[in-house]
Structures are given as structure tokens and as C-alpha cells.
Amino acid sequence: MKPLIKLEEKKDVFIVNNIYEFLNPENVYIPLNDSQLKDISYLYKDSYLDNSIVSVSGFPIGFEDMLINGKKIKALKVNNDFKENKEFRKSKPKIKTFQDLVQVLEFNHLNTIKEKIMSLPQIDNFIVSCFDEEIYEMNEFMCLVENYKEILKLIDDLKKVLALENAVLAIKNTNVKGIKKVKSVSGIYPDLKVMLLPDKYLMSNPFYLTDYLNIPLDNTLILTTNEIYEINEILKGKSISEKYVTISGDALKKSLIIKTKIGVSLKEIIHNFIKITVSDYVVYENGLLQGYKINDLDKVIITYNTRCIVINKLEDNMETECINCGACMKICPVNINVKKCYTQNLKSHRCLGCGLCDYICPANLSLKEIVKGENHEETFD
Ligand code: SF4
Ligand code: SF4
What we know:
Elements: E1 15-22, E2 27-31, E3 48-49, E4 52-53, E5 58-68, E6 71-80, H1 98-107, H2 111-118, E7 125-129, H3 139-161, E8 166-172, H4 176-185, E9 192-197, H5 206-213, E10 220-224, H6 225-235, E11 242-248, E12 255-261, H7 266-273, E13 281-285, E14 292-294, E15 308-313, H8 327-331, H9 338-344, H10 356-360, H11 367-371
Parallel strand pairs: 1-12, 7-8, 7-10, 8-9, 11-15
Antiparallel strand pairs: 2-6, 3-4, 5-6, 11-12, 13-14, 13-15
Helix pairs in contact: 1-2, 3-4, 3-6
This protein binds iron/sulfur cluster (2 copies).
One iron/sulfur cluster binds at residues 322-328, 338-339, 342, 360-363, 365, 367.
């Protein structure tokens, strides 16, 4: 296995170490096709429409074409009445077994966490990762800093209730603020191991994380700091209608972490918090390396799965001919012959979509797009 690398970050992108809240938007958008709208005249906060949470209470005012994951969808626009009216008051669930936890997650539409649990035939170890997926992203970092007491307590409770052998909190060794806070309370939880790991790209990947910690992958549940925070909110009888999103990039006056309602349009967040300093810029959703380009910033909806938005100055990165340097193959963590995939239009199911080949290619070729895919012809090493 190749050693992980540290990616250089631009010095002029500095993410402000505070949370900015945007919890009273004018409107939110819910992905929906209009046939489902028949009898809806009012929407309650924390209700669900087609698996999407309604994060405010208010009145539906029609459909708009919006973007989710870079794809065009129809979305119902809900005008916030700022009353936060809820149809039902939720009870506080108790968890005694994994089955209880799975049921609670299912009831609250936290399917990503549920699927992580369901995919493991047996769970003996538990890792909570405070590593963000990419550079210019600090949601996990700040979630730990803001909620460290509750996060540590819940990890310890889950370890006991679910009779797990190991519980590890993995923190980036550069998260000085988080480490200080965790150390101030970690003595209360002697069974919880706090591990400081190097700030390397792909450390959030389960394969690399378990390898670094020398813990087997196949019986280990790995959750993020944000996922633990969400479970904790649910156990308090709340819903997950808000999330952290990092908005960063060298085209911005300031890069910020925003706690926002789910369903808000990126346009409304930018209007309230962000100053773009140039006229020509490029926007990526969910990461510079693993994410995708957004062509119409005004149409983007913040969903449960939105982690970050990067807005960078447009640079003259014209694609040129492959110069046969071999850098893409050298950097690929899973040893795919990237150049051969590119020249022969082959895919590999082993591709992690990490984007390191694109990042390193001096010819500015979009290699990840070509290599990553399920309908593959597995290649060679
Ligand atoms: S995106 Fe795929 S091919 Fe490119 S470096 Fe990552 S794993 Fe290798
Ligand atoms: S890094 Fe780019 S230029 Fe170099 S071999 Fe790979 S595809 Fe060609």
C-alpha cells in the first residue's frame, strides 16, 4: 500500500474558525415531483416529503428547476413562515441494542448511518473519525470543537451499551483546538482511546484509517464526528434539519463554516454571508478533488449530503496532450495504470475517485472521470 500524502493548500484560503448560523432562510427547496403535491397546502417543520426533511414550516409556492449533486431536479419551494410549527413532538428514543439503533436511524431517515451498520455482519470495534474528506473542508473539525463533550459521552455510552471491544476517536494531529478540548474531558472516559493521526489526504477513507490504526476493517463500524452528533440529536428527540457546510476558495474574501437549514439555496447563503471577489470563478460541490463542477451556482440546493462548496478563481488550466510523465500512475493509491485507462478509455472498479491523478497531471487532463466506473474493464497494475 502506498503511503498517504499531505496535499498543499493555497496560503490565501483561510477558513475562519467559527460557526456562522443561517437558520432562518426565506425559502427552502424540497426535491419532489409535482404529482406528489396534490393535497399539500401547508408544511410542518421536521416532516418528510419523499425522504427529504422539511426544515422550516411554511407554505408551498410552486416548483423550480434546481440542482442536486450537479443534476437538474424539480424542487418544491416552501416559503418560511418563521413559526417553526411541528406536527408532532418527538419522543426521546432509548437504545439498548444495534437493532434499536437501526430502527431509530430508519425512523429518522438517517440512511447513510443505517447502511454502514447493516453492511457489517458483526461489529466489535468502533472508530469515530474527525477527518474531513478533503482540503478546504472543516466540518468534522468544527463539529468536534463545538460538541466535544456530547460526542465523547455518546461514544462511551455506545461502547458500553453495545458491548464493543474498542472505541477509538481519531483526530487529525493538526486540530489543536479540538485536541485541547478533548483532552480536558477524556479522563472521564478511560475506555475510550483518543488517537492523533497525521494530516494526510484519504485518512478519512475506512481502508486507510483502519490500516493506520491497525484495526480490522471487516468488523469495525466507522462513523464521522457529524454522524455521532446527529445520533445524539435524535436521542434528544430532535430531527436533523440543519448541517455544517464549509464554503471556501481563493475567489472569496473569507472562507466560512456555516450551520444552515437543509434545503436552503446556495444563492441565499452567498447573498447573506459570502463575498466573491472576482468575476471569473469556478465552483465545486463536495470537494476540489472528489467533487464535481457546478455550472449554475444560483440553482444549488444544500442537501443532507452537501459537505462543502469551493469557489476558486478561474485559472488558465487548458487541457494539453499527455506528455507521458507517469505521474498519475505514481500517485494513484491503488496502483491503477491511469495513463493506459486514459488512452484506451478503460474503467477500473478499484478507482476510489480520489482525484489525485487529476491533481497531479501536468496536462490538466480529467482522468478520474474516465477511470472511475462500475462498467469496467479491470486493467493491470
Ligand atoms: S481517482 Fe482513481 S485512478 Fe485517479 S488516482 Fe484516485 S484511485 Fe487512482
Ligand atoms: S499525469 Fe497526465 S501527462 Fe502524465 S502520464 Fe498521466 S495523463 Fe499523461
